[in-house]
Amino acid sequence: MSPIEAAATLFGLINVTLVVRRSMWNYPFALAMVSLYAWIFFREKLYSDALLQLFFLVVNLYGWWNWHRSRAEMGEVRVEQLSGNARIAWLAGCAIVAAGWGALMHRYTDAHYPWWDGSIAVMSVAAQILQSRRRWESWVLWIAVDLAAVPLFALKGLWLTAALYLVFLALSVWGLIHWNKVKA
């Protein structure tokens, strides 16, 4: 456990709590958290998760803009839902991309647990895009990510991060319930 992991954990707790509450203030904490986790995961040879943090940096900037636009138009951050066909397409896309990404990480890097780490990364990308677009289904994917990530991070000795993802799991359930109630 390092001070950098402790800081990233704290920023993550604040970030996700604010996301559940649909607060625009989640974004500065998200940007700080993902910057720290990019370094942590690279050091641990979890390359998919390290690259994921760079993606999160960009998509959080997009989400900040999109949420701000929604709040300006509607007076609040509006939550929407996917169509049934869109849900199936997102799930199929996740499965296909996860298989491809895992294969690339396995073949071309010295990544630890390339399939597991890669699947978590791909589901996280999809969840973050959906969250940036204010879709309540993002929480379903975050729940799956959290369930898969906790044992991986524990196995790597990232105990604070594993604990953080347990808290993220609880916050994701809260987010799913809350966002489902307020969806348009």
TrEMBL record:
Localization terms from the record: Cell membrane
Entry-linked InterPro entries: NMN_transpt_PnuC (IPR006419)
Membrane topology summary: Multi-pass membrane protein
Membrane-spanning parts: 24-42, 48-67, 88-107, 162-179
One protein family per Pfam: NMN_transporter
Record's keyword terms, sorted: Cell membrane, Membrane, Transmembrane, Transmembrane helix, Transport
Function noted in UniProt: Required for nicotinamide riboside transport across the inner membrane.
UniProt family annotation: Belongs to the nicotinamide ribonucleoside (NR) uptake permease (TC 4.B.1) family.
Name of the protein in question: Nicotinamide riboside transporter PnuC
Natural source organism: Sphingomonas agrestis
